């Protein structure tokens, strides 16, 4: 039994959903509205053990017949990677595990940092837009370098398990492309970010993920709970300024 709970946006839960969907494992997904969350906080419901660190996402699962709840995106991602790991998979070296975790953590930190900027309603209009784009391009350059060094391990073959690092990098790249379509145009074999392009294309073409993306209308789902993180606003600003 696996149950993932988060707000009704992509947010920090997007990589976790990618891992679950790609694995084919049965799971439940509960979405909480911001209105319900505010009411829950006022009612003092938000407390351990149901909410280990007083936030979302949370993952509920069974261990030795006992109900367990895990919080924090990074911890849930690493748990799912281990829980969903195919039997008989080769153990990765300490060095490789650390390098993959570096990519996962950097991608998650980047996305969360950009999410915070959406508290400003004008964050995607000049002059703020230029500052945001500078941060995004700086991250993409670093991600391209590190993905190229790890390409054989982080870009999965069709039969390979999707890793938490891959899912986090994919989410960061999708988010960047939504904010700045001109940067998505550079995620090509002949562009500035060819390895980023390979990772995105590879993940998008995995059969379960492709079906989920197409049938769930995921591309139009909000990134954050703030109005300025909704796709209509992001697209309108991109059409005007990108």
Automatic annotation (TrEMBL):
Residues 1-26 form the signal peptide. Residues 1-88 form the GST N-terminal domain. The keyword Signal applies. InterPro entries: Glutathione_S-Trfase_N, Thioredoxin-like_sf. Keywords: Signal. This is GST N-terminal domain-containing protein. It comes from Botryobasidium botryosum (strain FD-172 SS1).
